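**Backbone geometry record:**
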Amino acid sequence: MNILGLRLRESKVKSIYVIGSLRNPAIPKLGNALRKLGLDVFEDWFASGPETDDWWKKYEQGRGRTYGQALKGYMAPHVFEFDKFHLDRTDGAVLLHPAGRSAHLELGYTLGKGKPGFILFPKEPEERWDVMAQFATEIFFSQKEFLNTLAEKYVE
């Protein structure tokens, strides 16, 4: 159960989806640390590069398409299904901050499927705090604390 008493799937985590920003260079480092725990880790979305979303927007606008039209093109549904496939196949997810709207949607989707979803802040947030972080299974403020807890409580 999480802090709100929501019942989550009780099985151990064998695979995990790393959620975050394309601009966060800590994503592959976290992925490697999770692999050392013996987990099947998915963060391949990071390989597309830090400006992927910006280039997609420029490309579609250059074609005269709106955001709504671009979402219905060939690329956007393909990328969405790629990420969703891996969100569905993994046992849980960790959202590594800083991260944007898409990341929070992915975490909400994971939690809505009854899977554990963690939030990892690299440090205590200095600017904006958000009470809705309590939806997460657990919240961490250091990678070491997250990895230790994951290994002790969630990894077989």
In short: The first strand starts at residue 15 and ends at 19.
